Amino acid sequence: MKLNLLKMKFLIIVAVIFLVDIVSALEDCNTKFNLTDEEITKLKRAQLTDPSEDMKCLIECEMEEAGLIKNGELQEDVVIEKFGKENANKILESCRGEKGSTNCDTAFRLHNCFTRTRRRAALLEVLSRKV
């Protein structure tokens, strides 16, 4: 039980650090792209249906600033550093093959995959505690 609690605290700390990186990158990148307040809100809430090219490129900028991608390529060592080995392995297994038609599209696909994978892992964690 203590190990699970410790693991959960660690995951929360990692998530907060990652979120701080992303929010900082978002502020830096937001000045480069012409997104509406509504698009920014959707991005923060991960409601990314039918995104504009600017939104995809903002995501690319954020991920580049955070070091997660470089020239459209996933930086696996940074993913491990930011998410921890266990979580990173899940993310990398699920998302490694994501490729789009442009670097912005690749970043968008990776972002969606990261989000799905993290949500799935969180759900499995909750379900495993009920057993």
From TrEMBL:
<dbReference type="GO" id="GO:0005615">
    <property type="term" value="C:extracellular space"/>
</dbReference>
<dbReference type="InterPro" id="IPR036728">
    <property type="entry name" value="PBP_GOBP_sf"/>
</dbReference>
<protein>
    <submittedName>
        <fullName>OBP35</fullName>
    </submittedName>
</protein>
<dbReference type="InterPro" id="IPR006170">
    <property type="entry name" value="PBP/GOBP"/>
</dbReference>
<keyword id="KW-0732">Signal</keyword>
<feature type="signal peptide">
    <location>
        <begin position="1"/>
        <end position="25"/>
    </location>
</feature>
<dbReference type="GO" id="GO:0007608">
    <property type="term" value="P:sensory perception of smell"/>
</dbReference>
<comment type="similarity">
    <text>Belongs to the PBP/GOBP family.</text>
</comment>
<keyword id="KW-0964">Secreted</keyword>
<dbReference type="Pfam" id="PF01395">
    <property type="entry name" value="PBP_GOBP"/>
</dbReference>
<dbReference type="GO" id="GO:0005549">
    <property type="term" value="F:odorant binding"/>
</dbReference>
